[in-house]
Automatic annotation (TrEMBL):
<dbReference type="InterPro" id="IPR017846">
    <property type="entry name" value="Nict_dMeBzImd_PRibTrfase_bact"/>
</dbReference>
<dbReference type="GO" id="GO:0008939">
    <property type="term" value="F:nicotinate-nucleotide-dimethylbenzimidazole phosphoribosyltransferase activity"/>
</dbReference>
<feature type="active site" description="Proton acceptor">
    <location>
        <position position="347"/>
    </location>
</feature>
<keyword id="KW-0328">Glycosyltransferase</keyword>
<dbReference type="GO" id="GO:0009236">
    <property type="term" value="P:cobalamin biosynthetic process"/>
</dbReference>
<feature type="region of interest" description="Disordered">
    <location>
        <begin position="124"/>
        <end position="148"/>
    </location>
</feature>
<dbReference type="Pfam" id="PF02277">
    <property type="entry name" value="DBI_PRT"/>
</dbReference>
<protein>
    <recommendedName>
        <fullName>Nicotinate-nucleotide--dimethylbenzimidazole phosphoribosyltransferase</fullName>
        <ecNumber>2.4.2.21</ecNumber>
    </recommendedName>
</protein>
<dbReference type="InterPro" id="IPR003200">
    <property type="entry name" value="Nict_dMeBzImd_PRibTrfase"/>
</dbReference>
<comment type="similarity">
    <text>Belongs to the CobT family.</text>
</comment>
<feature type="compositionally biased region" description="Low complexity">
    <location>
        <begin position="135"/>
        <end position="144"/>
    </location>
</feature>
<keyword id="KW-0808">Transferase</keyword>
<comment type="pathway">
    <text>Nucleoside biosynthesis; alpha-ribazole biosynthesis; alpha-ribazole from 5,6-dimethylbenzimidazole: step 1/2.</text>
</comment>
<dbReference type="InterPro" id="IPR023195">
    <property type="entry name" value="Nict_dMeBzImd_PRibTrfase_N"/>
</dbReference>
<keyword id="KW-0169">Cobalamin biosynthesis</keyword>
<dbReference type="InterPro" id="IPR036087">
    <property type="entry name" value="Nict_dMeBzImd_PRibTrfase_sf"/>
</dbReference>
<comment type="function">
    <text>Catalyzes the synthesis of alpha-ribazole-5'-phosphate from nicotinate mononucleotide (NAMN) and 5,6-dimethylbenzimidazole (DMB).</text>
</comment>
Length: 379
């Protein structure tokens, strides 16, 4: 079987006995029952994911920033030039982006993955980490990376294709390319877990990538393009109307079938969206929580859930992006976001902010005294 098929087959439901144990333990802890709200549900779910109570603390964590470019950029759906993608890759490697600041604050490692950047990365990139990517093995996520926090950001060279085709006039990529990009994400998730990561965090970089995200969300949820297409980095009313029309045109052209998730990704997705779907599947197969960032991760999570419905058990919605499609996708997945700060950046920023909350939900099950042990009277 292929890596994708093996991974999908390895994804199992949550462990009911571990969840029951976590629920029972919550009832014994020195707090009014239910007083931690949805954090109690999260702790129970992560016990079910790990198959043990208490579940392991979700640390250390790595945020994987999957970078790709988009042929639909030619349609004028974003005000930013395409070169900003590769320029931001250099910025991530130099620790200069917002996600680097948030990751440093939280103690998470940053890994940048070139899965589909249009411009070849130069040897002169910061830290000498970026090399020529021509002929890179699309089936590999690069060398194994460890998850020790406090380390320099690192680059994984796994370019499947130098940007997608324009999804409004032809398929964004071939099915083989979509599978190759998914498998980049699966391999990286496995490498990180092998290196000790207890939590995976999704990140993205790709000028124009809110357009394929909207198309994916419409395809998987059945929502109208107008209800899931947002303003991305910031566009005026006229450009937004044009962007909605581009998404509508792509959906009418390809008629993506949600029962064929790889076909949907190939037709209207992006290389980073496909890799993110694989990253989620890889985390779910290894039973490690995956914190979703914004609309790009949410759209990829829909593809992962369509491939393996039980993968939703490993997903944690880090935050509610201001992009309208994000809320539509999270509702479809049945996930409630942990943080709602009006962020609309991507890179993994909202998910990194949510990580300490996820860890706190687990730590309660480790550290909090019981009524018995603390000598606190019950009602
Ligand atoms: C400087 C800069 C840094 C970013 N970091 C994330 N994004 C975010 O914005 C882009 C998507 O928005 P749209 O579809 O409107 O182009 C993606 O690169 C996403 O990661 C950025 C965008 C810019 C310009
Ligand atoms: O939701 C996101 O992650 C997002 C929103 C706008 C632009 N880039 C990313």
């Amino acid at each position: 079987m292929s890596l994708l098929a093996d991974t999908v087959a390895a994804i199992r439901p949550l462990d009911a006995a571990a969840m029951a144990a976590a629920q029972a333990r919550h009832a014994t802890l020195t707090k009014p029952p239910g007083s931690l709200g949805s954090l109690e549900d999260l702790g129970v779910r992560l016990a079910g994911l790990a198959g043990t109570c208490p579940p392991p603390l979700p640390q250390p964590a790595t945020v994987a920033v999957f970078a790709g470019d988009h042929g639909v950029h030619a349609q004028g759906v974003t005000p930013w030039p395409q070169e900003v993608t590769v320029q931001m890759v250099a910025n991530f490697l130099a620790s200069g982006a917002v996600v680097n600041a948030f990751a440093r604050q939280a103690g998470a490692e940053v890994v940048v993955v070139d899965v589909g950047v249009a411009t070849p990365l130069l040897d002169s990139d910061p830290d000498g980490l970026a090399g020529g990517t021509a002929g890179a093995d699309a089936g590999s996520a690069g060398e194994a990376v460890s998850a020790q926090p406090g380390m320099q950001p690192r680059l994984v060279r796994a370019n499947v294709r130098r940007g997608t085709a324009d999804l409004s006039v032809q398929p964004a990529m071939t099915r083989d390319e979509a599978v190759a990009a998914i498998e980049v994400g699966i391999r990286l998730a496995g490498d990180l877990v092998d290196g000790g990561a207890g939590c995976l965090i999704t990140g993205d970089m790709g000028i124009g990538n809110t357009t394929p995200a909207a198309a994916l969300i419409a395809a998987f949820t059945g929502a109208a393009a107008a209800d899931v297409t947002g303003r991305g980095t910031g566009i005026d009313d006229e450009t937004h109307g044009h962007k909605v029309a581009v998404v509508q045109r792509a959906l009418a052209l390809h008629r993506p079938d949600p029962a064929d998730p790889v076909g949907v990704l190939a037709a209207v997705g992006g290389l980073e969206h496909a890799a993110l779907a694989g990253f989620v599947l890889g985390g779910a197969a290894r039973r490690v929580p995956v914190i979703l960032d914004g609309v790009i991760a949410d759209s990829a999570a829909l593809a992962a859930a369509a491939l393996a419905p039980d993968a939703v058990g490993a997903m944690v919605a880090g935050h509610r992006s201001a992009e309208p499609g994000a809320s539509v996708a999270l509702r479809h997945l049945g996930l409630a976001p942990l943080v709602d700060l009006g962020l609309r950046l991507g890179e993994g920023t909202g998910a990194v902010l949510a990580w300490p909350i996820v860890a706190s939900a687990v730590r309660v099950l480790h550290d909090v005294a019981t009524f018995d042990s603390a000598g606190v009277a019950e009602k």
